[in-house]
Amino acid sequence: MLLVGELVLTRNQIVQYVGRSTDTDLVRASQRLNLIASELQEGVMKTRMQPIDHIWSKLPRVVRDLGIQCGKTVRLEMEGRDTELDKTLLEAVKDPLTHLVRNSVDHGIESPDRRRAAGKPAEGVLTLRAKHESGQVVVEVADDGAGIDPSRIGAKAVERGLVTADQLARMGPQDVLQLIFLPGFSTAAAVTNVSGRGVGMDVVKTNIESIGGTIEVESEPGRGTVCRLRIPLTLAIVPALTVECAGDRYAIPQISLQELVSLDAEKAANAVEEVGGAPVYRLRGELLPLVRLTDVLGLASDRHDGHVVIAVLRSEGRRFGLVVDRVINTEEIVVKAVGGQLKAIGLYSGATVLGDGAVALILDVQALARRALRTETAERQEAREAAARTAAVETERQRMLLAAIGEGRRVAIPLDTVTRLEQVRAESVERVGNREVVQYRGAILPIVRLDRHLGAYGTGDREVLEVIVYSDHGRSVAIVVEEILDIVDGGAAVRSDIDDLGLLGSAVLGDKVTELLDVRAAILAADPAFYATPSPTLLEV
User: Which of 26, 201, 212, 414 is the most exposed place for a label (fewest CB within 10 A)?
Assistant: First the structure.
């Protein structure tokens, strides 16, 4: 296999060199070499493939002995026994698969009495399935047992100090299920030679991820649990996407790559948003958390034209976007092990030699995913912040601005409808037809005087007007009052439905009866088109 790997590297170098040549005979010979090398590689790979039944054949006895030990009757069913896998990976998944089977018998399937009480057959069924899917081998360990109760998992995790109660409250059911992979977690009541030590599922996940695979858990209480392993067909030669970042090239295994997104400078400026200080991109309606490779590596990007290239990657069932400087090409790479110093960084799964002879490090997608999704998904973060903003708005609506309008009358205006408080000299008020307007910050603001609007008719000879400015969607209105009094909390005020034209009711604020202004009606009195059309375009003359 090592010789085939070297042959693939040499082929890549020749194909890349000949690609720049105009010699037709040389190009034809290189294409022939490429075809022969690919067929030889495929033939050698087939000789390394072995059916998964080589490790499944030992499991019936494991299930039978463990069922007797636990006092349970379990029937083992196998589907896809002839599914083939690289022999190196076959050995790597042997122990994790055995542990999952033992776990299903011990924790998943109930005792015969409990199964009969739940209306199930006394005999439990444990099913092993294997199949090829999208260049991977998918192995499932499914049982028809009691399933996993998220509330019990959460309680055990809090009890063992693995998470806090606040962290648990913010988790969804699927996130709670992932707690079973934490080191030290176990739901067993007592330590036995089968379970209870808290060592197992975390090791299973670590071993599966070390060979580039993933593990997923699906469970329905009362119906059963499915543990699904996704394993690459081989680790020796894999197709990869070559990218460039800060002048260096890196390889991304195509098994984790879903798509590429390229944004020009103008679109990138508007499409890349921030949620909780983290960059995200809305891809077909879904928020995609972004990780900039330059930030991860601590380097400075050499691309300054504003273009953004995003490699959409999938790991552990979730997607994220890796922002790179450029995409070079795709090619089959031979995976070489890296030294302990590079492996300790935790960002590289190996290295390879590219077609031009340069060495490229292979990025560890799982490690990048953990960095991108360390706390929670961007969608949940956005939802939580949206809820917080809504709560803040509701709280703000309970706060009122008190203003006097003349004749001893006071009005209360919700604080969220106040953009700014200004003072305007009376001599600066002008007229457009029958409407009063004022020039303000390069725009023309219509004015509504609350004393006239509500029939109070206060003092009319003031030199300076107290103005409340409200702005929305590029339009603004100036509301003139006699005096700004105070800002009060109106949440606990005594309210009444006694009102009049232009009012929404009344309330006792500051030990005085205060009128609640119908802000919308006041704004429409100044600008009837305020809520109907966008702001008018200013024309240069």
Answer: 26
